């Protein structure tokens, strides 16, 4: 189990020759680049056969979790040789990271003088205690009193549908590599396909992160159970639909529960070769795929796969998201570390929407703290956490324009992945608050308020002017993003870009409508993250019905019908008789006033 400095020197000598040498004269920025390259290089080195426990082992007797202070690339390389299971994937020089390793590995840290602190001295005991507890009957206990396996999650989703069939329906995002359906629910008061903003909350991309399963299930549960009781939930459901996928990695999750499985499994369950399994489903997405913080080594916990979207689980989720272009917000829940990370995660460069992301992200952090006083660190992932290429949230944001990010839920390492049950509900509640805040902020970011030009939108037979004023809140409008939309007598929807007239005001015309016509219209304003409608974010319109009767030029007295009174009026105007009511309109004396009388009149004149 000893690792000598000679080994380190040999490993360094084996490093790819293309790696840039570190120079002491580099500017800080390029130093950071060199450090990152060194980190990547270290992680790219295939683990050498050291006598440490393989990750596939079902038991972890003698292993501890240790928080190591990574002072240099050499520290990182050494620790990576002592552990192939980094618990907090926060790889940064000058920071701390948690690793599972054997006691012998810890002794080596000690000998090498690398600062460390044992955070979980009795890992297997904790897993054993969890297994014993989970083996007890749970009937009669509240659902959130303990963690739940895949079957129980699925049953719960089905129960939600059964209890609220008009609100909840099952949706799915394809099939895992072992053939399990990736199941979720849709929560909405409106029929599927209704155009309104949507949110998606996802969990358990990493199998062992059980707290993320419970967090997403709690969000689903709150939205279903309290859909009318809680006014904030009711308000969101008035304007939006919500999707929840609690387990995106069903095979991996099942494996963390199964006899013969592994409580600490992270990846999916693709058989790669021999006894090597698994692709990291949070390194398999196309934005930043293959970048820093991912590995090309099949046995690595961050193995990215052979190509972006090589895995059916990521394909299924990708296709679900693509099929729902109305999605405006996404949170992918992980554990642990108490972080709220928004894009980008593949680069430290700030996203062009950093202002908007922070305008929603900082209140989310505040909302979390308001529940139980927990302080989550919030910020752009690349600089807050470290680089991780190929993650789901970079894709939902970068490819789909969805406001997204990753929440690492409780805790900060005292328990890690094996969390006591007493943490389930407090953790879920504070993260529900984060989700709620994202939804409310986005929905309230409606960039438009309506101010109609005086006297507009009432005239028959003349075009009507609609004038609105925008109030950008979260992000700015896209080009030609303010549009007037209408439909005449239920026909197809027409659209006109509203012209900017200054002072955040926009104007466009509705077509003239004549008698007995109906015009439905609304205004939409599109920003990067959301399309808002006026009136409201609902599938409703303003309606304009012609107030005038249909005009017939023969209806000379405008009473709505053409009759002898109109003919009398005509005769009067031609001077036939002075008073219309006494005028002998029955010119041919056949007993009725009709077109023959008009003919007689024309003959005479
Ligand atoms: O490494 C990961 O995938 C996440 N950490 S975890 O310990 N749950 O594995 C962090 C992802 C951070 N990057 C993004 N914001 N995507
Ligand atoms: Zn994770």
How would you describe this structure to a colleague?
With 605 residues, the protein is α+β, with helices and mostly antiparallel strands. The protein folds into five domains: 3-45, no CATH class; 64-128, Alpha-Beta Plaits; 144-271 and 312-443, 3-Layer(aba) Sandwich (Aminopeptidase); 448-547, Immunoglobulins (Immunoglobulin-like, Sandwich), CATH 2.60.40; 564-604, no CATH class. It is 31% helix and 22% strand. It has helices at 5-14, 28-44, 73-82, 103-112, 123-135, 150-163, 210-225, 231-239, 250-257, 312-322, 354-372, 381-384, 392-398, 424-443, 564-573, 595-604; strands at 63-70, 85-86, 95-102, 116-120, 168-175, 181-187, 198-202, 241-245, 271-273, 276-277, 327-335, 339-342, 377-380, 403-409, 448-450, 464-470, 477-488, 494-497, 499-502, 505-510, 518-527, 531-534, 542-545. It has an eight-stranded mixed β-sheet with strand order 5-6-8-7-11-14-12-13, with helices on both faces. Strands 17, 18, 21, 22 and 23 form a five-stranded antiparallel β-sheet that branches. Helix 7 (210-225) crosses helix 14 (424-443), helix 8 (231-239) packs across helix 14 (424-443) and helix 11 (354-372) runs antiparallel to helix 14. The chain is elongated. The protein starts with a helix and ends with a helix. Residues 1-29 and 46-57 have low confidence and may be disordered. The protein binds N~2~-sulfamoyl-L-arginine (0X9) and zinc ion.
How would you sum up this structure in a few lines?
This protein is α+β, with helices and mostly antiparallel strands.
